[in-house]
Write a structure and sequence with these properties.
- It is a single chain.
- The chain is α/β, with parallel strands linked by helices.
- The protein has a domain at 57-266 and 273-298: Aspartate Aminotransferase, domain 2 (3-Layer(aba) Sandwich).
- 38% of the residues lie in helices and 19% in strands.
- The strands form four sheets. A seven-stranded mixed beta sheet has the order 4-12-11-10-7-5-6, with helices on both faces.
- Helix 3 (55-67) runs antiparallel to helix 10 (280-298), helix 4 (78-91) packs parallel to helix 10 (280-298) and helix 12 crosses helix 13 (376-391).
- The longest helix is centred in the last third of the chain and has 19 residues, at 280-298.
- The structure holds pyridoxal-5'-phosphate.
- Residues 102-104, 107, 136-138, 186, 190-191, 219, 221-222, 247-248 line the site of pyridoxal-5'-phosphate (PLP).
Length: 393
């Protein structure tokens, strides 16, 4: 039985898999079992923030695994306390953090905090949460319902009540009523097609919500941890959300989610919990990731490479008006919007043949989420291959 047959026989077929067999990686490079090298412009969907095979992260994980991996949240967990402190310091927000294991789970917790807030603050019980069309908040039943894409609500019902969808930020105001307790948004929609929100509109919304005692939840599962150039996209947008959720890039590939909130007194002992969340292994990994990325940001290297990456994408978009409408995105969360009548998948497949990994977002966007520690050489090689792929179309 081949590995592919094994996968198809024993693994539930929930993914439309490409059966390339990657066996190791080095920063932006991936290597398959036949020794072919690929430039990874996807970083495991914004997860491998410090690159593949990062020796500092590997050493931290290895060292921690030899000491303690898990004891449960019944006892003090040193790296968890240190990570919560680091997240507060790096973000600049006066927050406490709860640790989960994924983005969907972090969003579930954020929704619970908001619902609890709606129960204890104000005269009437408030429970309604407004999210945006084309958003993506995860795959659990509640996170699916929070996701503003009707196609996601076809099966698996009945769903929890209390979610309404705004067409855009300006439409949020029309949906607010006495039962509204929170608004949940991504500052740059990722899965929805690499769509940054307008800064002024976000700032206006943030202020308006504060006046009405409605919580602003920012889903930073994809935008968080330097993906947009700042620790959080909320820092870039210069807002102070009530709740921020994190996951993807935080552990560099080790599963971890986080909910940061300024409302420290809302959840009490017993209100929420997780068996694995915040254990020694994942929080130690995240501490190392933050150390690596903080240094990368402070040296100026992160901003420099982001600028170069943006310039390359802009010139590719300009050189191929027959394929692309424009370049979109922020920092290392970027895309090429594909022309009407052309197919993003066709471009992604051609790129893969040239051994450069790019992703799809929304219906018509070729998405680029490079590792945050990408080097100039890796970038040049990746774009050289991408250009070859485009020329083949
Ligand atoms: C990926 C993603 C999620 C879901 O994260 P999982 O870890 O897959 O549960 C939620 N929100 C956003 C914005 C995401 O990009």
């Amino acid at each position: 039985m081949t590995l592919k047959e094994m996968d198809q026989t024993y693994v539930l077929p929930t993914y439309a898999r490409n059966y390339v067999h990657f066996v190791r990686g080095e920063n932006s490079m991936l290597y398959d079992a036949d020794g072919n090298d690929y430039v990874d412009f996807g970083s495991g969907i914004a997860v491998c923030s410090v690159g593949h095979g990062n020796p500092r992260l590997a050493d931290a994980i290895c060292d921690q695994a030899k000491k303690l991996i898990h004891t449960s949240n019944l006892y003090l967990i040193e790296p968890q306390a240190r990570l919560a402190k680091r997240l507060a310091e790096l973000s600049g927000y006066d927050v406490q953090t709860f640790f989960a294991n994924s983005g969907a789970e972090a969003n579930e917790g954020a929704i619970k905090i908001a619902r609890r807030y709606g129960e204890v603050e104000g005269e009437v019980k408030r429970y309604k949460i407004i999210t945006l069309e084309h958003s993506f908040h995860g795959r659990t039943i509640t996170a699916l319902k929070a996701t503003g894409q009707e196609a996601m609500h076809t099966y698996f019902g009945p769903f929890p009540d209390g979610f309404v969808y705004a067409r855009d930020i300006d439409h949020v105001y029309d949906l607010i009523d006495d039962h509204t307790v929170a608004v949940m948004i991504e500052l740059v929609q990722g899965e929805g097609g690499v769509q940054p929100m307008e800064k002024e509109a976000v700032r206006r919304l943030s202020e308006a919500l504060k006046k009405q005692d409605i919580l602003l939840i920012v889903d930073e599962v994809q935008t968080g941890i330097y993906r947009t150039g700042e620790v959080l996209a909320s820092n870039l947008y210069e807002i102070t959300p009530d709740i921020v959720t994190l996951a993807k890039g935080l552990g560099g590939g080790v599963p971890i989610g986080a909910i940061m909130t300024t409302h420290k007194g809302i959840l009490k002992a017993g209100d929420h919990g997780s068996t694995f969340g915040g254990n020694f292994l994942s929080t130690r990994a995240a501490l190392e990731v933050l150390d690596i990325l903080e240094g990368h940001k402070e040296s100026g290297e992160l901003d420099h490479m982001m600028l170069l990456f943006e310039e390359r994408l802009k010139s590719i978009a300009a050189a191929h008006p027959e394929l692309f409408e424009k370049e979109v995105g922020v920092g290392f969360m970027r895309g090429l919007r594909v022309k009407e009548g052309r197919d993003a998948s066709e471009i992604i497949n051609a790129a893969f043949k040239e051994r450069v990994v790019v992703l799809k977002a929304g219906k018509n966007t070729v998405r680029f989420l490079p590792v945050l520690t990408i080097t100039k050489e890796e970038m040049d090689l990746g774009f050289e291959r991408f250009e070859t792929a485009l020329a083949s179309l």
